[in-house]
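User: Sequence recovery, please. Input:
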């Protein structure tokens, strides 16, 4: 199973001594999780560049956890998350098909960082993921997965119920504009203003039968919540998804970087038009993207 990675690590053979492969990414050359047989600690290795990412320990110790049990804690936590449905099984390769089925590591639960907001029935679901194998010198790389779906009335009721069940988990709170509440998990700065506008627009608007994305606007914030960068542009990954009730969720991924040693967050909004770009049935409106955190996790899988 690990033979391809060994071929990629000829230059790192000496560094690999006394280490046992514990797990590998979908593309083995991208990332290996290794156990140090001398102290049973767990670390990340990038075979393609023969680079140790030891500073990104795969199972960081805390005052509540003993030393020399990193591999056990890593396995136990991974098993717990899989059993709890924290990760989804999806097609991982660009060609698709059952041959590329694997475990998607973007969190599928609020307690691991997924954030959800609903504006005028349009749900935005976003999950961040720390990507140590893509980090550059001085910067940490985070990928994020964003999903859009125009909910049916029943689906929206389920989202409201899920929000109520997660009450108290501030990063994962979901509110519904169709319930005349602010549709955001971002409660500060311009995010709150956008949420208020979205809630006001919903109160005077009927349910949508279709809508299409026009543009995006991101705010990248520092550890104190101050905006350090704004990014705006048309479409998402070159696409203008058209949403209809009952259609599958449209999902895309992108990435950003944060200076090493710092924490950050992202939030923003997406501009949609009622109907479609070719045949609009109403005006344009903003859909909230809730705030999500960019910080090194305790565990890397």
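Assistant: Recovered sequence (301 residues):
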């Amino acid at each position: 199973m690990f033979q391809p990675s060994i071929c990629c690590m000829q230059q790192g053979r000496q560094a690999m001594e006394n280490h046992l492969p514990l797990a590998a990414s979908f593309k083995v050359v991208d990332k290996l999780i290794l156990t140090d047989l001398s102290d049973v600690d767990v670390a990340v290795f990038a075979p393609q560049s023969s680079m140790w990412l030891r500073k990104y320990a795969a199972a960081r110790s805390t005052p509540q956890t003993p030393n020399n049990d990193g591999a056990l804690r890593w396995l136990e936590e991974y098993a717990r998350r899989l059993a709890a449905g924290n990760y989804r099984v999806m097609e991982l390769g660009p060609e698709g098909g059952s041959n590329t089925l694997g475990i998607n590591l973007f969190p599928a639960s609020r307690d691991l960082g997924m954030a959800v907001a609903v504006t005028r029935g349009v749900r935005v679901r976003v999950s961040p993921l720390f990507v140590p194998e893509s980090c550059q010198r001085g910067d940490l790389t985070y990928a994020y997965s964003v999903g859009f779906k125009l909910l049916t009335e029943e689906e929206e009721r389920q989202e409201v119920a899920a929000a109520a069940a997660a009450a108290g988990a501030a990063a994962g709170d979901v509110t519904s504009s169709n319930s005349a509440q602010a549709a955001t998990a971002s409660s500060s700065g311009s995010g709150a203003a956008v949420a208020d506008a979205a809630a006001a627009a919903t109160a005077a608007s009927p349910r949508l039968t279709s809508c299409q994305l026009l543009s995006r606007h991101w705010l990248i914030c520092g550890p104190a919540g101050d905006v350090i960068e704004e990014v705006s542009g048309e479409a998402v990954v070159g696409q203008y998804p058209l949403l209809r009730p009952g259609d599958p969720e449209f999902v895309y991924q992108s990435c950003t970087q944060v200076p090493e040693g710092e924490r950050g967050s992202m939030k923003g909004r997406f501009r949609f038009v009622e109907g479609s770009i070719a045949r609009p049935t109403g005006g344009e409106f903003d859909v909230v993207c809730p705030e999500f955190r960019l910080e090194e996790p305790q565990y890397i899988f």
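The helical segments are 3-8, 13-16, 70-83, 153-165, 189-203.
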